[in-house]
Structure formats: C-alpha cells, structure tokens
Design a protein that fits this description.
Blueprint lengths: L4 E5 L7 H11 L3 E5 H4 L12 E4 L11 H15 L4 E4 L1 H9 L4 E3 L7 E9 L11 E8 L1 E3 L6 E6 L7 E4 L4 E4 L7 H7 L6 H24 L1
Parallel strand pairs: 1-2, 1-3, 3-4, 4-11
Antiparallel strand pairs: 5-8, 6-7, 6-9, 9-10, 10-11
Length: 221
Amino acid sequence: MNKPIAIIDCAISKPSYNCMNQMIQNFNIPTTYHWVSQFGCSSLDKIEEASGYIIFGSDSNVYQRLEWQVDLAKRMKEKLEKNIPVMGICFGHQLIADIFGSKVDMVKPDNQLFEGTRKTKVLADKFGFKKDEEFSLFITHHYEVKELPKGFIHLATSNDCFLDGIAHETLPFFSFQGHPEASQDFVDGHIEMTLSEQELKAGYEGGRKVIKNFIDYINGH
C-alpha cells in the first residue's frame, strides 16, 4: 500500500478517532481522516488520491439528504467508477446502496434498535470472503437496506437483517450493516446491553477479518 486509506467519519456528536486508531494499531496502515459530517467533504480535495475509502457509521439518516451526505455519496460513486476501492459500514452501507437506487428504511415499523453482536453468513466468494463462512460483528442500528441495488450481489445475511452485506458485481465496493471498525470505546458508548467476554471477542475478531479483507484487496488491486 503506497497511499493512505481515507477514513470518512460520519459521526454527528463525537468523532470516531478511537475506531481509526484501533485500525492503525491492528494493521499498521497509513490513513487520512475526514470528519465530513462536521466540516464537509472539502478535506478530501486536499489529499492525493487515496488507495481506498472507508465510510464510517452515523447517527444521521440517508433520507435527511443533508448537504454533506449528498456530496459524499456523489464523491464515493465517482471514486468507484474510477475503480478505487470503497467500503461502507452501517450508514456507509446504506449511503452507497441509496445512491445506486436502493431503498433504506427502518428495520421494524416501531423503529426498534438492534444492538449487541450479530452473526452474519457469507453467501458468495468475493473480496476474500468465502461462501458459507460465518463471523460476528458489533451492531447498533434502526435502519437497513431494503432492496439489493441493481448491479450488486447479496454478500451476507443474518437472522435480523436480510441484506447484512452487499457488494458490487464489477466495481470495487463491499459493505456491511454491522460495525467491523468498532473499538472498545465505540462499544462502551453505543451499545447499552451487557455483552459477554465471548461476544466481545467474537465481535472484535469478526471486525478485524472484514477490515483485513478490505486492506488485502487494496494491496492486491
């Protein structure tokens, strides 16, 4: 990897530095940081083209059509069309699905929160993932992708979220509804339920696997 990965932080009230720092510590990768929900996307113009982009989660919703959301979605679609890898996480998963024509809505009509950890099952051999393998990710979400966008494949599914993972058929993009970037600070701040040591271990291990697959893809891209 000769260029940094750009971390796109979509958090509203508190920056996700801890999640980025954990990725740097786990994988020793160069990164640039962009808190787009607070400062807009212009910082992306002030760096050289990144080797890839990771879109973090957000307390905002894609249907708010906030200025930074619209700008970010347009920019990421342009990066993908230039064959530059992009990975979406939670809000990032929904943002890219939305701009490619999918529907995003509440998982349940009562706006139920899904939180904790969730086992997801891989449905296709793609981006280093193997069909039928299973792993856990931390989750905290009310919304989900409701339809598979045109030109995408169904990458992963779970009991609570049908389109738990998606990937583009030809462009270098995959995403998950769960949070592979989650750090201890993220878990403490976003997940109220008490998780066992086994659940915590599985969530961190699953997250590392997803991030590693993205980094490995970039390195072989």
